[in-house]
Amino acid sequence: MNAADRQPEQRINTPNYSASGFVKVLAPGTVANLVCGFDVLGMCLNEPNDLMEVKLLQEKKIIIHSADGYPLPSDPAQNTAGAPLIEMINELDTPTGFEVTIHKRIKPGSGIGSSAASAAGAVVAANHLLGNIFPNKDLVRFAMFGEKVASGVKHADNVAPCIYGGITLIRSIHPLDIISIPSPDLFVTIVHPQIEVRTKDARQILRKEVLLKDAIRQWGNIAGLVAGFMQADLDLIGRSLEDVIIEPVRSILIPGFDEVKTKCKETGALGGGISGSGPSIFMLSREEATAIKVQTVMQDIYNRIGIDYHTYVTTINKTGVKILQA
Q: Of residues 199, 247, 267, 290, which has the active-site annotation?
């Protein structure tokens, strides 16, 4: 760990071990960016979820298993769940390790936070077994090492909402500054075309510089979206779901994107866009009935295009990773 990775409040911790030594958690999917908030805004979902089982070990060791045969890296340093746990156990003053079994239900490369679910689920479960000695901000700091494994960049717009729940704003990475934003009761419709867009690849195609007029428009949309969430102003949320910097570039990687976005808004959705780096597309709606109609629109488009897909109609998860069994 270099000096830039280590936060000033970091300290050595003494665990207060769980009596059972075992925990099972649901690690939720997330929508990063929320259209205009690239790398700074994220939202936690009630569906889909990974299921993770974590066992406490009395030695400094991390073991990773894939429960369903999905080809996950077994080397902890190259695994999105393992890398955060390595950072965590390095801050403990007793020899401690974890054995992690992952039921991978959120497909990697989906754009709905697969790597974040593994990273966040692992650190929340491990922290539970340690007696919850680390605050949420430290858990995010650890989980970001999993995101670095996945994309080459430490970002928190998926892991923060996964751990905190609801909608989060990442004001800063160095130092880490996370703000929870009130989330209105909205319905979320997601279509995941069965193609893969790797986060690392989706980052590499982005422009390194933007025009000032585009930056100004983007700042207005980010501020409007945050204000809309805080005031539960759904019309303002809809007007602010516009991205003039990232989406025009990344959308070319997603067949049918423009048609999905246009027709879903015509059907009554407030708005939406690319979920994370794609290929999933999300739309927000006031009512469940509208969200279901939006789902039908998405299905019709991809049936016609001839691309397999999965769809979800869900809501905002306001609690994050859930302890199922301990």
A: 199
Q: Which residues pair with 103 in a beta bridge?
A: 51
From residue 279, give the alpha-carbon distance in Å to each of 70, 107, 130. Answer: 20, 11, 37
Question: The domain 187-315: what is its CATH number?
Answer: 3.30.70.890
Domain with CATH 3.30.70.890 in the chain: 187-315
Q: Supply the pLDDT for residue 12.
A: 62
pLDDT value at residue 201: 67
Please give the sequence-ordered ranges of beta strands (E in DSSP) within 214-302, or none if there are none. Answer: 271-274, 281-285
Determine which one of 147, 168, 267, 290 is catalytic: 147
Assigned fold of 22-180+318-325: Ribosomal Protein S5; domain 2 (3.30.230)
Query: pTM here?
Result: 0.91
326 closest CA partner among 119, 116, 124: 124
For the segment 168-201, what is each residue's pLDDT rounded down to a tens digit? 999 999 999 999 999 999 999 999 999 877 666 6
**Catalytic annotation present for 147:** yes
For the chain, the C-alpha Rg in angstroms (whole number) is 19
99 is known as an active-site residue: no
